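S.,

As promised, the coenzyme A run. Input:
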Amino acid sequence: MTVSVGIDKIGFYTPSLYLDMAELATARGEDPNKYLIGIGQSKQAVIPPTQDIVTMAANAASQILTPALKAEVAMVLFGTESGIDNSKASAVYLAHLLGLSPKTRAIEVKQACYGATAGLQLAADYVRVHPQAKVLVIGADVARYGLRTAGEVTQGGGAVAMLVTADPQILTLDMVSSYHTEDVMDFWRPTYRTEALVDGKYSTNVYLDFFKTVWADYQQQTNRTIVDFDAFVFHLPFTKMGRKGLRQILPEAQPDQQKSLKAAFEASQEDNRNVGNLYTGSLYLSLLSLLRHGQLTAGARLGFFSYGSGAEGEFFSGILQPNYQRGFDGAALTTLLAQRKRVSVAEYEDIYRAQLSNDSRDVQLPVGEEVAQYYLAGRQNQQRQYREQ
Ligand code: COA
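Predicted complex:
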């Protein structure tokens, strides 16, 4: 008998600062509605130098890992394109910071915004073979395009942590999925750069083309059509992107279903609209947003489109489980977002420039205002100094 496998728990973390997108638009000489409606972003997470992918992942994972679960994690798959080391995996730093058992495999997975999906699917296959195993999958990134660039409005950052197990509380993953890879230069970041190179308009078109391709292939493999779905969840580098994706397939649905799919999309973009781009975590923040704000019932089939520039796309699906609300702490996320402090454009620019320098100097970061459990205190002897409070 095939074991049902999927997402048992989800945790999310984003730092305690944000920038208002209407204010950024005004500072950049743009109509605020371009950012609020045209791009579809209201707030953007501002990442202080005291947070990086490891600390954000630890802050997300600590929400879902009890001491007993920490002893049971068999593998950590850390999806990111914001790596802090060309050799050592961020998953190893994370496993140590969380106090996981040394009997754990810990590796990093990279393919732009697709990394966490690769982690999720590899984790699911592993658990199908080892049904007792629990795998921690992370999607954590800092989305940086640069001050005064076209991509600036699509920045952000944060981490999603998912526990993949047999008989999961939130979502069982269907076995069939459709994936597609092509060598495309729409977005990339050579090792000498701290900001990505991107052709945003081209990337938007590749995203939509890949979605068309994998959606058609998925339907052919499964004989399912749009009527078999209650909601679609998209990778959201900015919320308008997913809206364009949904528009591409809506004509396949009858008017009533179009209405419910649109309502589900509105729920799925709400939290992303207030956090910004998490790169590889974005699809899973959108899932969390749908679970928090949507009107879904157990048994609903959800479709997921994952896209990582460069480029790789995947369409997969899963079934919502009866106790899905027990798999995440919605109230904690509401509090996390509500308690963030708004920074001005000038403050954001200072924080943006204050990121840990790309050299070997010893640095002590100003940790006085840091409220997160895990944070970065600086660098000594070329080693990042992680702390817990
Ligand atoms: N009110 C409402 N909408 C407005 C507006 C206004 N006053 N002014 C402009 N808009 C709309 C435009 O019509 C456009 O909508 P559309 O895409 O539906 O046609 C949208 O706002 C964006 O305007 P545009 O002129 O295309 O913006 P831009 O040249 O500044 O670029 C991106 C936008 C998204 C391409 C750019 O931010 C970017 O490159 N981001 C990075 C993308 C990325 O991360 N890609 C890789 C991962 S998939």
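The chain has a mean pLDDT of 97. Residues 31, 33-34, 37-39, 150-151, 153-154, 187, 198, 200-201, 203, 207, 237-238, 240, 307, 309 surround coenzyme A (CB under 6 Å).

- D.
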